[in-house]
Amino acid sequence: TIMRSLQRSDLRLSLYWLKDPEINKFLTQNFENLTNEQESQWLEFIHSSNKDIVFAILTKKGKIYIGNCGLHEINWEDKTCEFGILIGNKLYWNKGYGSDAIKSAVSFAVNDLKLSKILLYVYEYNQRAIRVYDKCGFKIKKILKKEHVYNKKYWDTYLMEFLV
Asked: What is the rounded CA–CA span in Å between residue 41 and residue 54?
């Protein structure tokens, strides 16, 4: 997996993925009404932020843009951040790209940014992601009971952490 800074040229595809109900159900925000302008403003915010870093995820060989991952709410004093990822191109689901991107982002956070704790939120129905996060060294820290509504049903939200 190759990671690079997210670029303006990535936004059209990124917006398409964020609005896809099959992907959106796993995200901690609902993006179904997100506009091109809002996505563009968000990218400007990210590029000027000293608390957020977002990467585009590309395949090694074809260098095909397949998703995004980011370190958010970086607290430089406490050495913590929140992690998020999405593999938007479903042809690349279950092929190890997410795991590779997670490991790369964690390595960057720990080795380059000198962070010591990475947090993430994941819904209980996203068992595939929970297994991948666990495999990459994240452990469940807390379960927020019936915190999330999806498909007219309440679901638990897991707070997971990676500790150095």
From this structure: 14
